[in-house]
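To close the section, here is one more complete example, presented without commentary so you can practise reading it yourself. The ligand is NAP.
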Amino acid sequence: MYTANEKRYGKMVYNRCGKSGLKLPAVSLGLWQNFGFKSSFANMEAMIRTAFDLGVTHFDLANNYGNPYNGSAEENFGRILRDMRGYRDEMIISTKAGYEMWPGPYGDRNGSRKYLIASLDQSLKRMGLEYVDIYYHHVFDPETPPEETALTLDAAVRQGKALYVGISNYNRSQTEAILKIFRELRTPFVAVQPSYSMLDRWVERDGLDKFCLENGLGLAVFSPLCQGLLTNKYLDGVPADSRIGRGETWVGSRLDEKMVGRLNRLNDVAKSRGQTLSQLALSWILNNKAVATVLIGASRPEQIVENVGCIEHLGFTEDELKSIEEILK
Ligand SMILES: NC(=O)c1ccc[n+]([C@@H]2O[C@H](COP(=O)([O-])OP(=O)(O)OC[C@H]3O[C@@H](n4cnc5c(N)ncnc54)[C@H](OP(=O)(O)O)[C@@H]3O)[C@@H](O)[C@H]2O)c1
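Output:
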């Protein structure tokens, strides 16, 4: 039987998710990759336990996470949870639906009531849970009226299947439109999940971060390390045992000579702060006041330990921020 390390709340920083009552750990663990049926169960279990022992109370999933993309991550997470049941009230578990999941028009990419309710029931079953803490619509659907998606997420809360709701891959104006409906319904809509990193700053250009800050919504940022580019892994080439080396991501196409030079200069800034590159990249995102948590991915427990270490140096001097801007220009 798993016994949690009782010191786990010692160091972690917990941020309020927007203006809601919900607190999220500054660093959360996402199960998109490395938690499917092709991964080692012992390694997955070690990653979840390592994270939880460090105060990472939030685990981010979706119906299609894992390999194969048919609920394998949720199923494996459910198996791991069986031995951690006593800790359910110390955990925030999120899932999502919206991307392609099962054959036919009802499990296809959409935001309909038909899809979102069926998918949530499936997710709860796979994970062996009675409710999730946050249920997200995974990606904006231009065809389903936002009223339908909002009412469906609201219904999930009223049915006791979700405590809070969120949206992911929505831009500022799409977020503004659905927020109006959630406000009318009084839905506990608390989280917005976009991609955001030093190398992917569309949320700043779009004004999504500012909008969320002004409207009491918290950002749960995904791919904060740009899928591993912002780590010390690619400073001298591409290791075979890496997401790019295994051909599992498109971000390898960004790894030209200029990028390697930029990553090395960022690494110098990190060293001057007593951090690693991944820690610098995470601290930098967490310095944006709109951000409640960074959702990191990992392929082994040591990466989680390293990344959680970012919380030991969160603030930045003006000079540090300026040098980083200069490098990212
Ligand atoms: N809402 C959405 O549409 C959406 C989309 C994508 C992701 N997400 C969420 O965000 C989570 C994180 O996404 P992501 O996996 O792209 O995040 P990421 O944190 O940017 O990248 C994670 C990958 O970087 C490498 N890495 C991490 N820490 C490292 C370290 N200290 N040293 C060396 N390499 C390190 C590992 O890859 P290696 O395999 O190379 O070791 C790891 O799998 C997902 O699990 C999911 O929960 C949501």
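Once you have examined the tokens, check your reading against these statements. Residues 14-229+279-312 form a domain with the TIM Barrel fold (CATH 3.20.20.100). The CA atoms of residues 132 and 162 lie 5 Å apart.
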